[in-house]
Design goal:
about 45% helix; D-Maltodextrin-Binding Protein, domain 2; 5-stranded mixed sheet; SsuA/THI5; about 325 residues; disordered N terminus; alpha/beta; NitT/TauT family transport system substrate-binding protein; 2 domains; 16 helices; single chain
């Protein structure tokens, strides 16, 4: 019996040592700044909720910085290691002669995330119906506004001539302005658009995402110096993201909604599921982290159309696709 007990103790020592080593492994801390909190970013919250980042040895600290300018300030000042924000911000920073530019290394969303919402139900909607109306648009210079104007022009509408375009309302107050009576039509993100439908305040009649084509709408970027000095961390981050992107594609919507619900305390789970389905079905979620070259130049065409492109920037200058390619090929 003593021998048997001794053998059991000896056999258990390697397991105990292995467990202790695993528990003692140091996690790499990553400060992540997101431009806003949105179901539009579902794969990111899945990566956090399902432990994909942790399994890569990353302890991700998520902060919502509420706006492109503040998000880029956090990244460039060192307040964040990685930023989730519109790809256009990297072009703005680069045009200002940044010594340590922001490099886009992974894509999260590949369409615009806003919807056209009318105050009254509209049967057989045609974009021509917007002419002569008051349109409550997004903040000038941001991707929603640029995509909005791009789509209007593609539909034969001159935004600054054919309708009354309101762009002087802060992003956070656009929904409440429409609810209080401003505008005949409004450009809204989810879940506000769906909530307005449920409350009878507005009606979703079209999608700017389906109308504008594929574009690197929301991407992950980091400073060039961080990428050069800590490429392994960026690679681990991208691998976890890719797992989340595949998980979102293959799981039932209800499972996705349950997974990310803790990030949206004020939104009912059934609404989260409905919004996720809407974004998924219109192809908003990128299936891989790869930011495609044609989408990069389509983004700049949209910026140029809006008069916001400081200078055309080569794909290779601000996009690193090496990591995404490597992970997809694994």
């Amino acid at each position: 019996m003593r021998l048997k007990g001794l053998l059991l103790i000896m056999l258990s020592i390697p397991l105990l040592l292995f467990t202790a080593c695993n528990q003692g492994d140091e996690m790499t801390e990553v400060k992540l700044a997101e431009v806003t909190r949105s179901i539009f970013y579902a794969p990111q919250y899945v990566a956090l909720a399902e432990g994909f980042f942790e399994e890569e040895g990353l302890e991700v600290e998520l902060t919502t910085t509420w706006g492109g300018d503040t998000t880029m300030t956090a990244l460039l000042s060192g307040g964040a290691d990685i930023a989730l924000v519109g790809a256009e911000t990297s072009i703005y920073v680069y045009a200002q002669g940044a010594n340590d530019p922001a490099i886009n290394f992974a894509q999260l969303t590949q369409t615009d995330g806003t919807f056209l919402v009318s105050r009254e139900p509209v049967e057989n909607f045609d974009w021509e119906d917007l002419k002569g109306t008051t349109f409550l648009g997004q903040r000038k210079g941001g991707m929603p506004q640029m995509v909005g104007e791009f789509v209007l022009k593609q539909q034969g509408i001159e935004p600054h001539e054919d309708l009354e375009l309101i762009q002087n309302i802060d992003f956070g107050n656009i929904a409440s302005a429409f609810a209080s009576g401003t505008g005949d039509f409004v450009q809204l993100f989810e879940p506000q658009a769906t909530l307005f439908e449920q409350e009878g305040i507005g009606y979703i009649i079209d999608s700017f995402g389906t109308q504008s084509g594929e574009v690197p709408y929301t991407v992950y970027m980091t400073k060039q110096s961080f990428l050069e000095n800590d490429e392994e961390t960026v690679e681990k981050f991208t691998r976890a993201l890719y797992r989340a992107q595949q998980w979102v594609l293959n799981e039932e919507p209800a499972a996705v909604a349950e997974s990310i619900a803790p990030f949206f305390d004020d939104t009912p789970v059934d609404v989260i599921e409905q919004v996720f389905i809407r974004y998924r079905d219109q192809g908003s979620y990128a299936e891989t982290p790869l930011l495609k070259e044609e989408a990069w130049y389509h983004l700049q065409a949209i910026m140029d159309e809006a008069g916001e492109l400081p200078a055309e920037t080569d794909y290779e200058e601000l996009v690193n696709r090496t990591i995404a390619d490597r992970i997809i090929d694994e």
